[in-house]
Amino acid sequence: MEENNLNSKDTQNTFLKGSAWMTFGSIASRILGALYIIPWYAWMGSYGNIANALTARSYNIYTIFILISTAGIPGAIAKQVAKYNALNEYGIGRKLFRKGLILMTVLGIVSAAIMYFASPLLASNGSQSDPRQVAVMRSLSYAILIIPILSIMRGYFQGYADMMPSAMSQFVEQFARVVWMLLTAFVIMKLQHGSYVHAVIQSNLAAAVGALFGIGLLIWFLFSRRKQLDYLVAHSNNRLRVSTTELFGEIIAQAIPFIIIDSGITLFSLVDQYTFHPMIASLVHASSDTIEDWYALFGLNANKLIMIIVSLASAMAVTAIPLLSAAHTRGDYKSISKQIANTMDLFLFVMIPAAFGMAAISRPIYTVFYGPDLLGSNVLYLSSFTAISLGLFTVLMAILQGLSGNGLAIKYLVLGLILKGILQYPMIFLFKVYGPLVATNLGLLIIVALSLKHLEVQYDFNLNRTSRRLAGVTAFSVGMFLVVKLCEMGLGKFLNPDHRFNALVLVIVAVGAGVVFYGLVTLKTGLVQSVLGSKVESILVRLHMDK
């Protein structure tokens, strides 16, 4: 019994450590990816929203091609490496990695070529092909040659539950990308007074530049850990014999579900991309560029900001898959139930207050990034709560993948997308620009409800306990929301939130007040200790905050 408790603590500590690294990588890269928009958007001048719409449409297609070109293989590699490592067959994991690299290179070349030549067909706003969109999409195809290699290297490290290399490579990749984007945008728009389309093309080409830097860092990590990895391979059981054909079969069998499931959020976005323009055009009289401006409000402007907090869920999801896979391989159902609970607890503890907090400061934070826009601020407000649905979807799909529930996850995703498609027009009819967000929320909540019920029945997951945790966290988050909102409204009497610097001051002060409030109430009630475990308790003792 004591050994089981120790294993449970080790698993929780591994999960927390992995989540911490992946959270750092995801949040840091997302923050960089959001901060660049402030000068970039300003340099685009009056073309800001249209430039963002071009980027959003291109990135939705690009994301699908990235998932196809990587074929879900990084996630599959992480899962399979974790499986063989749990069996002390490290040599097979290394063989998987090497064979996967070959497969990645081939898929990258094929996918990049398809995206490049198919761009004229894909560059449609629902009515006709856009030459600007074609050029922007083609500039992204170069990254598809490189990113598959970067992704599989990350998957290999994640299979060892070593999240630090992946996190650091995410940060370096994004940093190099942002530097290239800002440098080229400044030169083209401010020095050369050139075309905003050329600036957007260079900004998308930055994805390939960033990927090269990310690969360089991961190669360094591979060499720095070579002795440790060689030792594990040398001391493997070496009892299993798996042929190259079997390895490729395993990779592909695991990869196909990963493609479909990992593209879930993007598939919801693609429904918006190809339906919003024609649907809204049939309901209101507005120019094509005006509709594109509206699309940019939720398709990229708000989405870029909420994805900062959704990346919290992605970080936890990536960490959970190999741990759940290892427990599933051992047949340790008690550990599986505990790990699901740990994942959900940490998700709720971080995600709910983050979403409520962003909603509370939606007006000033939108002004900081894009300038004053009441409609844009309101879209961000609703999008902030949509982030909770997106985060829950991400985490639960990852849990099902880790437990080899790929087929079930795909069924749930298809059902959610069908519901989204059915509700899209009625919701746009009722709520106009907010309609796609409402339809997305309803589709995702169906997936979430079905997934939670399955985990409760199949793995004895204590849904009642998690529901109580949700109620407590939500209550604290509502309190924090009120504190942040009152702080913002009070300061707003002296500082005009429509001015960028004033809005930034409002955001900093209001967020600070919210963090202090949430931190104190969760400490006083013991919520922090129960979620983060023994490590945080020892820190609180040192700080004399344990009472």
Automatic annotation (TrEMBL):
Kindly list the residue ranges recorded as spanning the membrane.
21-41, 61-79, 100-119, 139-157, 178-199, 205-223, 247-271, 305-325, 346-366, 378-400, 434-452, 473-495, 501-521
> Subcellular localization, per the record?
Cell membrane
Membrane found in the keyword field: yes
Q: Which CDD domains match?
A: MATE_SpoVB_like
Q: What is its main location?
A: membrane
Keyword field = Cell membrane, Membrane, Transmembrane, Transmembrane helix
Q: Which InterPro entries match?
A: PG_synth_SpoVB (IPR024923), Poly_Biosynth_Transport (IPR050833), Polysacc_synth (IPR002797)
Superkingdom of origin: Bacteria
Topology within the bilayer:
Multi-pass membrane protein
A cellular component term, taken from the record's GO annotations: plasma membrane
Instruction: List the protein's name.
Output: Polysaccharide biosynthesis protein
From which organism does this entry originate?
Lactobacillus crispatus
